[in-house]
Amino acid sequence: MKSTSFVVVAALFAVAVPAVAAPKPPQGGRLSAAARPTPLIFGQGTVVSGKLTGQNNGGKQVTLAEDPFPYGDGYTNVATATTAANGNYTFPRQFPPTNRNYRVSALGEQSFTGVRVMMRVSFFVGDSTPNRGQRVGFTGFVAPKHDGRTVLIQRRSARGAWGTVRRTLLKATTGNRSRYSTSLVIRSTGTYRVRAGADGDHITGTSRTRTLTVG
């Protein structure tokens, strides 16, 4: 009799306790990010874009944050965007003045990219068709300002290799730039360029080439 009572009570208890629904699996997704172009020349812009994959990935807010050189001071939010129906997103064009890392975040996902900024180097010559043995002025600017840094005047050899023929210092001038000025005695036709070496906040910048043709 005791056994029959226990079975009845157990059956009633089983009916009284509602079943617990199994948890739904998370709707996972992946977030991609890329900055283009990189590297870029100081003053140019870059666009960070990417895609959020997974279910219901359209209409989601995506946040762009940056951590500029010297890095490690934390990320600061700089822009937001909304994903398209297919999960694609594009942030407004950024104009980074220095090297920096970017972090993109959405729905708990994160993706990292970055951009490297070359110094802008201009290059002018006083005479592109000098006489043999004539002294020719080499001038220009490097942006942003890097007063006191060394720039290299380089000449291309017959084999195509570049060699440094003069070093000169950058000096203060107006605006966010530095200037350089030097001169060379030109004895034969040659092609020249100017390079401003990398530092922590920028990578090496190279001017356009100039060919001096000896008349």
Protein model, in words:
The structure is a single chain. This protein is mainly β. Helix content is about 5%, strand content about 45%. Strand 4 (about 60-70) and strand 5 (about 75-80) form a beta hairpin. The longest helix is centred in the N-terminal third of the chain and has 15 residues, at about 1-15. The chain is elongated, with a radius of gyration of 31 Å.
Fold blueprint:
Layout: H1 2-16, E1 34-36, E2 40-41, E3 47-51, E4 61-68, E5 76-82, E6 88-90, E7 100-106, E8 109-115, E9 117-118, E10 120-121, E11 124-125, E12 134-143, E13 150-156, E14 162-169, E15 171-172, E16 178-186, E17 190-196, E18 205-206, E19 210-212
Distinctive features:
215 residues; mainly beta; five-stranded antiparallel beta sheet; disordered N terminus
